[in-house]
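User: Reviewer 2 asked us to show a designed sequence for the structure in our supplementary figure. I'm pasting the structure tokens here. Could you produce the per-position amino acids so we can include them in the response letter?
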């Protein structure tokens, strides 16, 4: 097949209208796995196919785009940066949108690869030209690529900012079209993933603007289209910088998360649950939530109700958030924080151990695993171990391999046992008999199946 692809390239280069040959080449490249295609095409003269894009023949363009899309997928971003840069930049100016999208997609692969980015930035004129070619495009993929380029380094952000594209994107945050606004928020969030991106957004006053948008969302009947994105932006910012700084500087964000957690709209509730889990995954975030007192306690009680009944997806997100909120690593286990996580766990129910175990026994694998992760969260904490040994039948439940037959369930149970065994307090609190049984479980592995002895009676059928 490699020989036929090479010969087809030679044949196509010699013909004026190679439609049939292009169709054959398309079939050939699509029939080979991408991993195997790399060695075949790395030495080919791709300009043969790129040159055929200079036409108004729709059929020829579609064939070339399909062929190049497959071949370029097989090549490394560094190879593209070194050998296909000029052709891809030319594709950005092509009148056909499918060619532009092909070029944008491949340039985006280069931008997200460190070695390829170095190759591009060694010649800053190339980067300027790429941005110049893209900035006039309205397609979402073009905007995404600009944001990706901006995220690479302060230098590339500077080029993009000078092209006026970034200011246009920031202006779309408060535009009349709520769908455009939602897309702009997603892209600004992507930009905030880099430190230089966050600094730029702060200098432009974007954090204050988004905080004001959260406040003003109450009076906007279409806010449901973009409000989740605003909350996700600050949730991301809190983890990247500081939960305390973000929540204290932009109180509208924290207040809105609490409101959304008790909102009947499952979309809003789901975003709030995810955000609370992200905030509460850090010690600083736990302390910020604790400071709100009864506000957060009310949210926890709401989370308990959601975890116990309702749509499975929302229940899973709720259980995952709870596990993040009550997780404490060994080095984080100060007396105050242990009291905090224990108090939150007991806010879930009068009998939280039974509540979570009941959820784990329901016939939904994702609920089973999420419930086990809550037990894993409390397993390294002395108070959690005391609850486990004090709950009738719980230690037997942990080592019972018949519960949760799926691989994910076995992995989750194994993680729970590992968390207990690795705790320095488990042997004393659980007792040597239980502790040794847990160590035996761990030694046997997650997928151990006990041998079943069979007895054959002479003369039996």
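Assistant: Here is a per-position design you can include in the supplement:
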């Amino acid at each position: 097949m490699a020989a036929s692809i090479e010969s087809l390239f030679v044949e196509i280069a010699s013909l004026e209208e190679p439609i049939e040959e292009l169709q054959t080449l398309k079939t050939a490249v699509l029939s080979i796995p991408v991993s195997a295609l790399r060695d075949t095409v790395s030495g080919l003269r791709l300009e043969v196919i790129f040159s055929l894009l200079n036409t108004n023949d729709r059929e020829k363009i579609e064939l070339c785009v399909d062929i190049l899309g497959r071949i370029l997928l097989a090549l490394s971003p560094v190879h593209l940066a070194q050998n296909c840069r000029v052709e891809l930049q030319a594709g950005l100016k092509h009148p056909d949108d499918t060619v532009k999208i092909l070029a944008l997609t491949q340039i985006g692969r280069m931008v997200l690869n460190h070695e390829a980015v170095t190759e591009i930035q060694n010649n800053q004129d190339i980067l300027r030209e790429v941005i110049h070619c893209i900035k006039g495009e309205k397609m979402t993929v073009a905007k995404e690529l600009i944001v990706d380029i901006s995220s690479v380094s302060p230098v590339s952000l500077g080029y993009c900012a000078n092209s006026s594209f970034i200011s246009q994107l920031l202006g779309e945050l408060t535009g009349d079209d709520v769908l455009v606004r939602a897309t702009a928020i997603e892209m600004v969030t992507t930009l905030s993933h880099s430190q230089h991106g966050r600094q730029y957004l702060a200098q432009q006053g974007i954090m204050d603007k988004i905080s004001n948008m959260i406040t003003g969302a109450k009076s906007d009947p279409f806010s449901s289209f973009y409000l989740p994105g605003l909350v996700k932006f600050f949730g991301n910012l809190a983890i990247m910088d500081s939960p305390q700084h973000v929540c204290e500087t932009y109180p509208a964000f924290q207040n809105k998360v609490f409101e959304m957690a008790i909102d009947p709209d499952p979309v809003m509730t789901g975003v709030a649950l995810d955000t609370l889990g992200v905030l509460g995954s850090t010690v600083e975030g736990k302390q910020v939530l604790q400071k709100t007192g009864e506000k957060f306690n009310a949210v926890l009680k709401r989370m308990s109700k959601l975890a116990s009944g309702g749509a499975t997806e929302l229940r899973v997100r709720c259980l995952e958030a709870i596990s993040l909120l009550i997780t404490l690593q060994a080095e984080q286990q100060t007396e105050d924080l242990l009291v905090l996580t224990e108090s939150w766990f007991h806010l879930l129910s009068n009998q939280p151990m039974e509540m979570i175990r009941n959820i784990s026994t329901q016939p939904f694998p994702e609920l089973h695993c999420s419930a086990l992760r809550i037990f894993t969260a409390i397993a390294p904490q002395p108070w959690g171990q005391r609850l486990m040994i004090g709950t009738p039948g719980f230690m037997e439940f942990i080592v019972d391999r018949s519960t949760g037959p799926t691989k994910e369930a076995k992995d989750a149970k194994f993680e729970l046992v590992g968390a207990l065994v690795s705790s320095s307090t488990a042997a004393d609190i659980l007792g040597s008999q239980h502790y040794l049984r847990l160590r035996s479980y761990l030694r046997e592995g997650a997928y151990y199946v006990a041998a079943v002895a069979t007895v054959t009676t002479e003369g039996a059928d």
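For the response letter, you might also mention the following. The mean pLDDT is 88. DSSP finds 31 helices and no strands in the chain.
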